[in-house]
Structure formats: C-alpha cells, structure tokens
Amino acid sequence: MTPTTGAPAPTRWWHTATGYQIYPRSFCDSNGDGIGDIPGIVSKLDHLADLGVGFIWLSPIYRSPMADNGYDISDYGAIAPEYGTQADFDRLVAEARARGIGIVMDLVVNHTSSDHRWFHAAKASEDAPEHDYYIWRPPAAGGGPPDDRRSSFGGPAWTFVPQLGRYYLHLFSPDQPDLNWANPALRAQIYAMMNGWLDRGIAGFRMDVIDLIGKDVDAGVYEEGPHLHAYLQEMHRETLADRDVMTVGESWSVSRDTALLYCGRDRAELDMVFQFDHIRQGWDPVLGKFKPRPFDLVGFKKVLNGWQAALADDGWNSLFLSNHDLPRPVSRYGDDGRHRVASAKMLATVFHLMKGTPFIYQGEEIGMTNIAFTRLDQFRDIETLGHYADQSAAGVSDADFLAGANANGRDNARTPMQWTSGPRADFTSGTPWIETNPNHAFINAEADRADPNGVFAHYRRLVHLRRTVPVVAFGRYRPFAEEDPAVFAYTRTLGDDRMAVIANFTDAEVRFAVPDDLALAGTCIVRNRNPRPTIADVMTLEPYEAVAVLQGPAESAVSAA
Ligand code: TEU
Ligand code: CA
Fold first, then answer.
1. So which residues are the catalytic ones?
2. Rounded to 5°, angle at Cα 467 from 462 and 469
3. Residue from 71, 178, 381 whose mutation best tests the ligand 1 pocket (most atoms within 8 A of CB)
4. pLDDT tens across 281-295, in order?
5. How far apart are CA 199 and CA 191, in angstroms?
6. Ligand nearest to the CA of 26
7. Which end of the chain has fewer CB atoms within 10 angstroms, the N or the C?
8. Cα atoms in the Cβ-side hemisphere of radius 13 Å centred on 534
C-alpha cells in the first residue's frame, strides 16, 4: 500500500454527502400528462430531505425532442416544456437548498440533438461556422461509411447527408450527432453555458460519457482519446475553478490505471468518475449487456476491492449499483421475491459503507424491482429497440432477446416511482409514459416508510452514518475473504476506530470462518437481521444477512442498530 505523502487531503462537502439520482420523466407528474416534471420533484423534496441526501443528480431537463429521454439536447439554455419553466427550475434550486440539498445537473456535451440549431446550421452549409461543431468525414475510398464503428444503440455510427456528400459521426443514435471538441469556438460556447447554470446556484455537474470528448477519429481512438485531459483541464479553468461544486464524470472506459488522470487531487479536472467495471463484469464479453452472465461474487469483489485500493490515497470513488441505464440491484444482485427487503438492505450496506460517495437511484431506497415485460412493444428505449433490430437481423429469437432485455435493458428500471398503492402508484393522475410496475400494490414509498424495518429506514441510517461517523466517510479500506464465493467482508479504519462489514450475498445460510483481523467487539451499527455486537471465530450468516460493527471511540456517538 502506498503511504500518503504530503499534506492531508482537504475535506469537501461531498465527501460526507450521499447523492440521489432523479430520472425526471419517471419521478412525479404534477399535471396529469403522464410525464414526471419539476413541480412534481419539488413536491417530493421532503421525501429526500428525510432520507438525508446532500445532493440530487438530475438527469437532463433541457429542451429536447426526447429521442433518448433528454440525452439529446436541442437547447442547453432552456428547460424542456414538458418538465416545466425556468421559474420552476429556480424554485427547485431554492427549495432544495432550503433543505440542505444541492442540485447537480446532467451535462451532455459529447453530442447534441440533431434538432439543435447548431446542427441545423451545420447541415445547411459547409461554410457555416457551426459546420465544424460536428464531426464530418467523406465516404471511404470504396464508398460507404468512413470506418466500421458501430453506434452504442445499434447500427453504424455514421450517417450520410446527401446534400453535403459527407457522413457525420454519432456514437449514439443518428439523432445524437457528436460534437467536435477540437473546435475552440464550440468549447467556448459550452463553457459559457456551464457558467450560466453554475451562476444560477447549482451544486455541480454529472458529465455524460465524458471519456468520449477527446476522441481522435482519424486515429480510430474514440474512448479516452488523446485530447481528453487537456479539454477537462481547460473546462476546469474556465468554469469550475474557485467554485465549491462537485463533478462526476461518467466513463465506460476508465480503468484503475487511468482513473487518477481524471480525479487525482492535483489534476484540476474532475472530483470523481462513475466507472462500470463491476457492472460489465456481469455481461457476456462478446455479446454484451443483452446476454448477462451469472453473478460471480469473487470477480465482483476483485473489481470493487481493486477500485478501493486504486483510489485509497488520491482521487475519490463513486459508489453505485444502479442508475437509469442499469437493472434494479435487488433484481440483478439480490432476490426480488422472498428476500427482497433483506437483500436490498444487504446491498445498500455493502456499498454505503465503502469509501467514496454513494449514489441512490430513485426507488432504490424503497427496494423497487425490475418490471418484467412480456412483449417487445412494452419497451420504449431507443437502445433496446436499436439492438433488437441488430440482433433479430443476426438471428436472435424474440424470446431470447426479450429475456436479455428484461434482465439488462434500461426501461425495466425506468418505470414510474412507486409512491403509494393507489392507481398508477400515484405517480400520475393520467396515463404514464411507460407502464407502472403492478407490484406497487405492496412496494411503495408510503408503505415502506411506515415500516420501522423498511428499506427506507435502512438507507436513512446509512446516509446518516456517513455524515456523522468519520470512519464511514474516511476510514482506510481493507478487504477480507477475497476468494469466498458467498461473503463480502471488509474493514474500515480511522485512528482508533474500526468498523467491520460482513455480508452474505446468497439466499442460503452460510458458515463463515472469520479471519483474525476481521473479528472485533463493539456496537452493532447496521444490520438487517439480528444484532451482533461481536464478530468472532465462526458466524452462521442468515440468507442475505449484512452486519456492521464499530469498535472504538466513535461508538459513544452512535446508537446501536
Ligand atoms: O450512457 C452512456 C452509455 O454508453 C450507455 O449507452 C450505456 O452504454 C448503456 O446504457 C449501458 O447500459 C449515457 C447516459 O447515461 C445514457 O442514458 C444515454 O443514453 C447515453 O449516455 C447517451 O447520452
Ligand atoms: Ca407532467
């Protein structure tokens, strides 16, 4: 382990905060059009204040044709009319701030919508200054697209514009043309836009696919391209420096070897990255997400333990299992039937007690599950529909595709937030844009919050511990039982405080021989089964049992769970 050199890292507000992701379309609809909106979010802020979160990451709310539910922006300065007005947004920022919650905006600047005025100008004439805001190439020598890169949503990554005789690049759908970051005028426009939002009092940015902005198309380098870090440093200088905000960059290509280039303390780029090694570890290496692999705890731990080690002394981890692109954790990694509540709490315990900033995706805090669709026409997502076209052309049967899409598609976790057992879960008084999970009859915020042993109460405790117990936020991480196929175990240490976390990832009882340095006696601060103030010798863990024990001076400040 590398010893810390130099001065200790300064403490920032987001080191002890927990984030909460809102997918606006599916959170709360205030006007009955079936689409969640900003007034709906404002009406639910007390739910979040009660949970104790420090900031909300708001998926995009800018004006957009919604081909990809807002990840296709047509005006960075405007609020989507279906989500509300500028006044609604300012009210959200103010009302959240009054509850100690910051608003983190989604910054989608790898691409715009094809309906952005820049793209209209770019397409109209090669002489327009905006033409060079996008990435154009002539057809390949023998005709056809410049290279055989595929779009993330199926089909080629290049679309031909006949009147120009050229192709434009879109790493996502044709409705999402990639911006040309090599153009300095474009970069200046983006920084001005960011400053505009920052000046309105937001708490930071989550940056969509930020690893893609530095690409060198002619060299065939798309991920983590040669210009990435120069752009991020320039962006920091022009927008973030001297502001006390939080930034987290989404990167599907970042590795433990490159992470500190984005979030090292002295880099002046980002505060954190969202990395996906632990997620992709469960995908088929060739066929990808629509062909999930059986869950392998040993591999999963290796990845997560490796990230804890890589960012132990510099940088900072983000901690998450779920977002609007991923399946519900309780369905993917736990048991969404009989052991739903216990496994939801177990997963939360393991993630929230690691070192880093945890993110809760809406509904996770009440143990929402994936919906199971039975027909392809129930899906709305551009990614799922695009891959369906590709895979059925490749001979994959509808039944197989449906199984893969239910397991790992994005819509299954985008169903409306389940507020009550009432009609349409009280998400809307109208017809929701995507079906409500029928299990809202028994899985809903009202019922869960009324239960002192509910999932919400468990999350609230974890969020509170991070704020109040320094070893939870800052303690050094040490993994145990790395080869154990059933148990996730680690300690955290800070000064004389030690915390042990032990979790059974299976639906069976497990006999666990406790390694020496993991055993301790103190206060049981988190549990989902019986209290265990002592961890010694051999434990028989119940299905999905999770327990955290604290030993040391901090015990006096914490009540037993
Ligand atoms: O996602 C990045 C991305 O690459 C996804 O397509 C991802 O590979 C896939 O969903 C895996 O499940 C971001 C946003 O989070 C996503 O919602 C957008 O669709 C995408 O960028 C384009 O902006
Ligand atoms: Ca609405």
1. 208, 250
2. 85
3. 71
4. 999 888 888 888 999
5. 12
6. 2
7. N
8. 3
461 lines ligand 1 (CB under 6 A): no
DSSP result, 223-276 = TT-TTHHHHHHHHIIIIITT---EEEEE-SS--TTTHHHHH-TTT-S-SEEE--
Q: Which residues of 228-266 are buried (b: 16+ CB within 10 A; e: fewer)?
A: bbebbebbeeebbeeeebbbbbbbbebeeebbbbbbeee
Give per-residue pLDDT as tens, 130-139.
999 999 999 9
Whole-number pLDDT of residue 6: 52
For the chain, how many residues are written? Answer: 561
What angle (nearest 5°) sits at the alpha carbon of residue 153, between those of residues 149 and 156? 30
**Domains of the chain (ranges plus CATH)?**
17-112+184-456 (3.20.20.80), 117-169 (3.90.400.10), 473-557 (2.60.40.1180)
Alpha-carbon span 83 to 25, nearest angstrom: 8
Query: Would you say 183 and 190 are in contact if contact means Cβ atoms under 8 Å apart?
Result: no
pLDDT (tens digit, 9 = 90+) per residue, 72-128? 999 999 999 999 999 999 999 999 999 999 999 999 999 999 999 999 999 999 999
304-348 pLDDT per residue, tens: 999 999 999 999 999 999 999 999 999 999 999 999 999 999 999
Rounded to whole angstroms, the Cα distance separating 364 from 20 reads 10
Alpha-carbon distance 144 to 156, whole Å? Answer: 10
Closest atom of ligand 1 to 152 CA is: 6
Torsion angle (degrees, nearest 10) of CA 89, 93, 96, 98? -130
Q: Quote the ligand 1 centre to 128 CA distance (angstroms).
A: 30
Rounded average pLDDT over 251-262:
98
Beta strands at 476-480 and 520-521: parallel, antiparallel or unpaired: unpaired
Ligand 2 is an ion; residues with CB less than 5 A from it? 29, 31, 33, 35, 37
Q: Which of 304, 311, 301 is nearest to 276 (CA)?
A: 304
Count other C-beta atoms under 10 Å from residue 508's C-beta: 10
Torsion, CA 150, CA 153, CA 157, CA 159, rounded to 10:
140
What is the CA 432 to chain-centroid distance, rounded? 23
Report the 10 Å Cβ neighbour count for 514. 19
Per the structure block, which two tokens stand in for 371? 């919906």
> Measured in angstroms, how far is the CA atom of residue 325 from the centroid of ligand 1?
6
Task: For residues 544 and 193, give the distance between their C-alpha atoms in angstroms, rounded to a whole number.
Answer: 46
Distances (CA, A) of 376 to 129, 154, 394: 43, 16, 17
CA distance 384 to 379: 7
Q: Which helix (H) or strand (E) holds 342?
A: helix 340-352
